[in-house]
Write a structure and sequence with these properties.
Elements lengths: L1 H48 L1 H10 L6 H19 L4 H12 L5 H12 L5 H10 L8 H9 L5 H10 L9 H17 L9 H11 L1 H14 L4 H6 L3 H7 L2 E4 L17 E8 L2 E6 L7 E4 L3 E3 L3 E12 L2 E13 L4 E4 L8 E5 L5 E6 L3 H8 L7 H8 L7
Antiparallel strand pairs: 1-2, 1-5, 2-3, 3-4, 6-7, 7-8, 9-10
Helix pairs in contact: 1-2, 1-3, 2-3, 2-5, 3-4, 4-6, 6-7, 6-8, 7-9, 8-9, 10-11
């Protein structure tokens, strides 16, 4: 009796083991079959529609934990990147694959990169990906970063986010490049104030207020009124200092009508300039309560006191750059009078404006020798005289 029971138990266990082995082999067969189908489909798409289509299809393949499938897909993705970029630029290949894995590089952008590369050039987004994805050093190649930013026409928000994510690496770039990065960043923030809120907003705010103080103040004072959420704009703040010393002050020659929430603003009232789109200017009255209004830029008259310099020549020795000016004058916005400036501003830095009274950024008094030493450029003993001779002038003093 007992032996019969044990026999039945052994038979049952054997059947369970046999069923388990059968299930295992059936599962492995399905995995191998699905892997072959997925790889074959990936090869077909890439061969038929090109490597960018292959990257897009590879990104869409569902990851099932099949390590062999993942290795096969990874090998093909590297092959597609080599076809798009070329076999020599490994850094660009890695940057492209990294951005593609995060969904940043879509089919359209990939095709643009491939076309530009086929013409022997580098797409600006790909050039920026070198700095943001593959440890490119902007301090070693500021010209490359500047050129990429100057030609960037798409994916600006993503690239700005990536640059500000590594804002600490921008500490040693030349002032002209830092100002350019800050200006582009603030232009994107005007449309998307919360774009950088997931980053270290205090560090980003310090960078922006240092290199583009006017635009930074305009952003924070705009967001304070329109109520759009932005941790970065809050960190910058719309402080009394910004209102007194940074924001351009104008006089509205035409009044603003009353609304349901705001009283009328009489002609001649003082307003802060917060932005400009073609011939329309966004202003904020100095008088409370705070409000935003769009007016014609021709209806504004400058009230700010500004230092005006006459630009003589752009002096350049590699990365050491400066603008040679012939004296300074002070424009009194209240009276519209211009008087000679006896001495430079005590802090040796001031806000630059063009002849229309529009802010063009921060200016500093610099020594070309100091800039040359910082950026490793060669500057002659008498740089201004040398630049004068270089320009072809007959008499240089």
């Amino acid at each position: 009796m007992i032996s019969r029971v044990w026999t039945n138990v052994l038979m049952l266990v054997s059947l369970v083991v046999l069923a388990g082995v059968a299930w295992y082999f059936a599962r492995e067969y399905r995995v191998v079959r699905d892997r072959r189908v997925a790889v074959a489909e990936l090869d077909r798409v890439a061969e038929q529609d090109g490597p960018c289509a292959g990257l897009e299809h590879a990104h869409a393949i569902v990851r099932t934990g099949d390590l062999d499938l993942e290795r096969a897909v990874a090998v093909r993705r590297r092959a597609y990147a080599t076809t798009i970029i070329g076999g020599e630029d490994l850094q660009a290949q890695a940057a492209l694959l990294s951005a593609d894995a995060d969904g940043m590089v879509g089919r359209t952008l990939c095709e643009q990169i491939a076309l530009v590369r086929a013409a022997g050039e580098t797409h600006p987004v790909l050039e920026l990906l070198r700095f943001t994805r593959e440890g490119g050093d902007p301090c070693q190649d500021p010209q490359g970063l500047s050129a990429a930013l100057a030609t960037l026409t798409s994916h600006r928000a993503e690239m700005v986010h990536a640059l500000m994510q590594q804002v600490g690496q921008l500490h040693c770039v030349p002032p002209w490049l830092a100002t350019g990065v800050a200006d582009i960043t603030l232009t994107e923030l005007q449309a998307q104030p919360a774009l950088l809120d997931d980053l270290e907003v205090l560090r980003v705010a310090k960078f922006l207020t240092t290199w583009s103080p006017v635009q930074a103040a305009q952003l924070s004072c705009t967001v304070e009124v329109d109520g759009r959420p932005s941790r970065l704009a809050t960190a910058i703040g719309c402080t009394p200092y910004h209102k007194r010393h940074v924001l351009p002050l104008y006089r509205a020659t035409a009044g603003l009508p009353a609304s349901e929430d705001y009283p009328a603003l009489p002609a001649g009232a003082a307003v802060y300039l917060l932005g400009q789109t073609e011939d329309r200017c966004q202003v904020r009255p100095v008088a409370e309560p705070p409000r935003l209004a769009l007016v014609g830029c021709r209806e504004l008259a400058l009230l700010s006191d500004v230092h005006v310099a006459v630009l003589v020549e752009q002096v350049e020795f590699g990365l050491a750059r400066a603008s040679l000016v012939a004296g300074l004058v002070t424009f009194d916005g209240a009276t519209g009078r211009i008087t000679p400036t006896v001495k430079e501003p005590e802090l040796q830095s001031w806000y630059g404006y063009n002849r229309q009274g529009e802010p063009v950024g921060m200016t500093h008094t610099v020594r070309l020798r100091d800039l040359a030493a910082k950026y490793g450029e060669d500057v002659p003993d008498n740089p201004l005289r040398a630049f004068c001779h270089k320009s072809g002038a007959r008499y240089c003093y």
